[in-house]
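Narrative summary of target 7.
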Amino acid sequence: MSKPMLLSDRVPVPPSAQASVVEGLSIAIDAVAARAAPSHRFLRYGWYAAALSAYGGRAKTLVVEEDGVAAIALPFVALGPAWLRLATVPGCYWPFRSFGMAMGASEAARAAALRGLSAQCNGLRIGPVQDGDPAADALIASARAAGWCAIDRHLGDAWVLDLVPSVDGERWPRNSTLRKNRFHEKHLAEHGALDWQALAGADWPARFADLGAVEQTSWVAQETDRRDMKFTTDGHLAFWQAAAVDPVLAGMFRAALLRVDGVPAAFSFDIDTGALIYAIANSYDPRFAKHSPGKLLYWRNLVAAMARGATRVDWGAGDSGYKRVIGAAEGAPIRDWLLLRPGLPAIAGRVLAGWWRRSGGR
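Modeled conformation, tokenized:
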């Protein structure tokens, strides 16, 4: 009599991966987001729908299922002239433009995704994303192994702050910092009653108006083309209003707001993913600049974030001055990636790689 095969003796069967393309945004996006890395769980249907509503474009969604369960959901829209057959992942440029990939998604799933993409386009732009992005890095590695050309352009470096209860044995924030902040708060209060507010969830989208009111007084409104403003009609307000329709996203949107005599004077707006917080925007009314209202508000915001269990803040690229003062350090590079399928597109990509690396824009 032969010895029965034990379960542990059996050769594991690789997961079955199958790709399909859905016109528009797929409901699978939310299912994959729920199984993705916590840092990527805001990449929901409502996030991409908000981008399409605010910035335009007709989307398709590449969905890869493993054994009947969605493992990858990659929305894409056309990029550039139609004859190039290029596509890009939509979304807001900050914190990043990436896509949903369930933790543990297999190499077979990524291979299926690349086959599906190859049938739809000659190339795909992913980015901006930071080095270490769990979805983008995995797909890029698989693409290179399959003969795709993957070229990047460096856009800057992120600034990150690790939130720790103590530094060199001393409580953080230091007592000296808290004393300095109380001094500034005392003099700021000479301009009127101070009201420190925390906004989240049901406060959106109505309270975006308060954030926009601060932005309208800021140096960004006075000294730039205003395109980078987040909460004004000539900035990105339409995106954030549309995204906040999703109650799950609205629950991740948090802001700290300071009013002076009832008038919005400073704000800080974040996406809270749990341990990691993305600092999206902060601004203040320059009338109160002497007393550092923005910095005072952000220190309070950091203390509140630590109390909720946050361990890191990601500020992205840009002005490092105030970030260094608070204690941030330079983090991962931020890149725009272009993946070009094997054949003539990959050959062209290798020829034009230098041009792509020198190019900029969002």
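Confidence is low (pLDDT under 50) at residues 5-11.
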